[in-house]
Amino acid sequence: MALRENRQVRLVARPHGIPHAEHFALVTEPVAAPGEGEILIENRYLSIDPAQRGWANDEGNYSAPVPLGTPMRALAVGEILASNAPEFRPGEQVFGWFGWQRYCVTTPDAVLRRVIPSRLPLSANLSVLGMNGITAYLAFHGLGDPKPGEHVLVSTAAGSVGSFVGQLAKIAGCRAVGLTSSADKAALAKARYGYQDMINYREAADLGAAIRAACPDGNDIFFDNTGGPIADAAIRTMRLRGRVIQCGTAANASWTPAPQGPRPEREILTRRLRWSGFIIFDHLAEFETAAARLAELALAGKIVHDEEILPGLEHAPGAIARLYRGENHGKLMIAVD
Amino acid sequence: MALRENRQVRLVARPHGIPHAEHFALVTEPVAAPGEGEILIENRYLSIDPAQRGWANDEGNYSAPVPLGTPMRALAVGEILASNAPEFRPGEQVFGWFGWQRYCVTTPDAVLRRVIPSRLPLSANLSVLGMNGITAYLAFHGLGDPKPGEHVLVSTAAGSVGSFVGQLAKIAGCRAVGLTSSADKAALAKARYGYQDMINYREAADLGAAIRAACPDGNDIFFDNTGGPIADAAIRTMRLRGRVIQCGTAANASWTPAPQGPRPEREILTRRLRWSGFIIFDHLAEFETAAARLAELALAGKIVHDEEILPGLEHAPGAIARLYRGENHGKLMIAVD
Fold first, then answer.
1. One GO molecular-function annotation for this sequence (chains A, B) (predicted)?
2. Nearest to residue A124, comparing CAs of A45, A40, A42, A51?
3. Total number of domains constituting chain B
4. Cα–Cα–Cα angle for A20, A23, A25, nearest 5°?
5. Are residues B182 and B123 in the same domain?
């Protein structure tokens, strides 16, 4: 097999908080041939996720930090070019831990699942059928326990997960209200993502009052991707026996030392809340079922998915910071050129 | 029926935070005869509970504030002297909302349950068979979901609820460690309440380090009656998928404005915690079953109950503050003289 030139985006400096372009380097080197039991994948789309901030940092986290000098950890979807593993054949499309690079030589355990053949575009495997759609589906239904007629509040409602939560809430017969950072995103979320009302938190002088105005009857479920002042205000609008789903903590760029906020324990007690953390990697066994159900909803036109695809690996280094600035519309990813 | 002199402890001033003796007045007046459908109860024991702080205050709470000029809201156990309600007869012993007073004229809905006839002393209906024992039982088993071999941390471990949680944890095959405010209480809790180890938080220079030393493998369940800095440290020792039971918030005397603390949302997320609030009054339907099970354990000598009984109604006004100073050993109550 002829040697191919690989392009990789490597983590070369340890960020404190949000990783910026200067923490990465674009490197070109030949691809090694796959060894015994290995596969060679050509990536088509690379995922940009809020969780990458945590992976790049070196603070107590739910997965080990990315070693310096290696390609940034990332989900990707690609095609198998060569296989020395019996369970994969060239031409198969797969989704998994293939990193920020054009080519990936790895073992089969990096593959999370084969791509479900459908009329959906390949990029859908990083959005509605990827971690975002599956996170929304499993967290909302698993921890949220939604019942028809319940009231749902969602932070980063126009974001990669929130855009699905609003739609799933509507499908479940709930009334969903979202929080977002611009009037454009608010309009988009109302038009496309199932939200009955939206709050632009950057324009709200009093966040608590803005939420109470949009949710006059309080909330049964708060699906939170941010934490911080939005969560402080939101949990103070919860109805009795409300469920708070902590799915991300994007509001704080650094957790060492722990930022301060108003204590929640009295709210948890008096409102009898159930506040749970959700991390998708605990739920790999439920993955295929969720993806199949989401594909069905997407193909039936019941759930839409918006993607912002940046053309070329050179956009990867600044993409996480872009995500945290809230500049993306829908799921942010990189098309490998 | 001859008129009886009633002695009442009335709330006469609205506290901000912990109610002290000066917020109450001891008043004597004749008891009215029970009207149609009413019962007359002679109280034997009156309960002193941390929740009375909230009932006396006028801040958003899980029950309406006690009106000024009325007997302090309290659980009590007593005997029916006269009944104009068909379901009760004189001589029956009952447990319910009879207030800080010797005699109570009320309607049957103030009765929570009849006293279970047993060899246990009547006061046990305010401790192991009262709100404390039942709270420990239902919160620990209902929200804690304990499994044999799991590690349990309990705040106010020598207190009215914590003294049962340690014993129930031990019966469930768990390893329990408790937090308390003195060496005496620590010794008592180790000797009598099922705790394998105890932490005197007043002597711990670094609370997190003290908990990690006593719980080197972390904790699966944190049963919290305090909130505040103890909870901050405790949740940072939780194992993956740990359960935090918020059963009280005694560490903070006032919640307006909300006191500040280190934000918990990152811990909830990365440790996949489930943090739930428990209030016993949501669980009246499970009450009889829990009391029967606890009576069985108490009669079999598998669970002990310590009570501190103050002799005479005149001790009631200062008793809530005494509880918050942590001076009691076991369940604090008043014997009506």
1. oxidoreductase activity, acting on the CH-CH group of donors, NAD or NADP as acceptor
2. A45
3. 2
4. 115
5. no
Residue A302's pLDDT band (cuts 50, 70, 90):
very high
Q: What is the CATH number of the domain that holds B14?
A: 3.90.180.10
Q: How confident is the model at residue A250 (pLDDT cuts 50, 70, 90)?
A: confident
For A151-188, the DSSP string reads EEEESSTTSTTHHHHHHHHHHTT-EEEEEESSHHHHHH
Which DSSP string corresponds to A39-59? Answer: EEEEEEEEE--THHHHHHS-S
Domain annotation covers residue B185: yes
Which of A240-244, B247-251, B322-326 has the highest mean predicted lDDT (pLDDT)? A240-244
| Whether residues A163 and A54 fall in one domain | no
CA distance A229 to chain B (A): 10
Domain shared by A72 and A89, yes or no: yes
Q: What is the mean pLDDT of chain B?
A: 94
Instruction: Please name every residue paired with B5 in a beta bridge, in sequence order, or none if there are none.
Output: B30
Pick from A266, A268, A279: CB nearest B269:
A279
Neighboring chain A residues of B278 at a CB cutoff of 8 Å: 269, 272
Task: Note whether A277 contacts B279, CB cutoff 8 Å.
Answer: no
B274 Cβ under 8 Å from any chain A Cβ? yes
Chain B contact probe: residue of A266, A273, A274, A281 with most B CBs at under 10 A = A266
**Chain A residues touching B259 at Cβ < 8 A:** 262-263
Nearest CA to CA, how far is A244 from chain B (Å)?
Answer: 9
pLDDT band at B87 (very low <50, low <70, confident <90, very high): very high
Q: How confident is the model at residue B61 (pLDDT cuts 50, 70, 90)?
A: low
Residues A247 and A271 placed together within one structural domain of the fold:
yes
Chain B's closest residue to A258, CA to CA, is B262
Inter-chain contact A275–B275, Cβ cutoff 8 Å?
yes
- Indicate whether B137 and B20 sit together in one domain: no
List, for residues A181-212, the tens digit of each pLDDT value: 999 999 999 999 999 999 999 999 999 999 99
Residue after which a domain boundary falls, among A266, A281, A296: A281
Write the single-letter amino acid at A136: A
Q: Is there a domain that residue B289 lies in?
A: no
Measure CB to CB from residue A263 to each of B252, B266, B276 and give the nearest one: B252
Q: Which residues of B touch A238 (CB under 8 A)?
A: none
Give yes or no for residue B3 having a pLDDT over 70.
no
φ/ψ of A214, rounded to 5, equals -80, -25
Task: Give pLDDT, residue A253.
Answer: 77
Same domain for A136 and A121: no
User: With 70 as the cut, is the pLDDT of residue A1 above it?
Assistant: no
ipTM for this prediction: 0.84
User: Is position A297 within any domain?
Assistant: no
Residue numbers in A near B262 (CB within 8 A): 257-261
Residue-number span of the structural domain to which A11 is assigned: 5-127+306-335
> Which of B134, B96, B118 is CA-nearest to residue B294?
B134
Q: Are residues A271 and A161 in the same domain?
A: yes
Give the β-pairing of A274-277 and A238-246: parallel
The residue of B212, B269, B274, B282 whose CB has the most chain A CBs within 10 angstroms, and thus the best one to mutate to test that interface, is B269
B1 versus B163: the higher-pLDDT residue is: B163
Q: Which helix (H) or strand (E) holds B291?
A: helix B287-299
Asked if residue B301 is part of any domain, the answer here is: no
Angstroms from B190 CA to nearest CA on chain A: 27
* pLDDT recorded at residue A188: 94
- Residue A260 shares a structural domain with residue A155: yes
CATH number, position B212: 3.40.50.720
The predicted-structure confidence for A145-180, as pLDDT tens digits, reads as follows 999 999 999 999 998 899 999 999 999 999 999 999
* Minimal C-alpha gap between B7 and chain A (Å): 32
Determine phi and psi for B114, rounding to 5 degrees.
Answer: -75, 155
Phi, psi for B223 (deg, rounded to 5): -100, 105
